[in-house]
Amino acid sequence: MLLIRCPWCGPRDESEFHCGGEAHIVRPLSPDDLSDEQWADYLFMRSNPKGAHRERWYHEAGCRRWFNIERDTLTHEILRIYRIGEAAEDKKRAKAKGKGA
Amino acid sequence: MSEQRFRLAQGGRIDRERPLRFTFNGAELTGYAGDTLASALLANGVRLIGRSFKYHRPRGIFAEGVEEPNALVQLGQGASGEPNARATQVELYEGLVAQSQNCWPSVDFDIGAINNRLSFLLPAGFYYKTFMWPKKWWMKYERFIRRAAGLGRAPTGPDPDIYDKRFAHCDVLVIGGGAAGLMAAQAAAKAGARVIIADDRPEPGGRLTGTRTIIDEAPATEWVDRTVADLDDAPEVLRLQRTTALGYYDHNFLTLLERLGDHLPSSARSGDRQIRQRLWKVRAKQVVLATGAHERPLVFRNNDKPGVMLAGAAQAYSNRYAVRPGSGAAVVFTNNDSGWESAIDLADIAGMRVTLVDVRSELSNPRRTLLRRHGIELLAGHAITDVHGNKSVKKVSVAALDDAASGYSGRHRKISCDLVCSSGGWNPAVHLFSQSGGKLSFDDQRGIFIPFESKQPQFCVGACSGTLELGAAILEAREAGKAAAAACGFKKRASAGALPEIEQSEQTPIRLLWSTPSGSGGRARSKHFVDLQNDVTVADVELAAREGYRSVEHLKRYTTTGMGTDQGKTSNVNALALLSQTLDSDIALTGTTTFRPPFVPATFGALAGREVGALSDPIRTTPMHEWHVEKGAVFEDVGQWKRPRYYPLADESMKDAVDRECLAVREAVGILDATTLGKIDIQGRDAAEFLERIYTNNWKKLGIGRGRYGLMCTEDGMVFDDGVTLRLGERHFLMHTTTSNAARVLAWLEEWRQTEWPDLEVYFTSLTEQLATASISGPLARPLLADLAPDIDLDPKAFPFMHWREGKVAEIPARIARISFTGESSFEISTPAGFGRSLWEALIQQGRKYGLTPYGTEAMHVLRAERGFIIVGQETDGTVTPIDIGMASMVSKTKDFIGKRSLSRTDTAREDRKQLVGLLTQSPTEVLPEGAQIVDREGPLPMPMIGHVSSSYYSANLKRSIALALVRAGRSRHGESVVVPLEGRNVSALITAPEFLDPEGSRARS
Question: Does some domain include residue B797?
Answer without folding.
Answer: yes
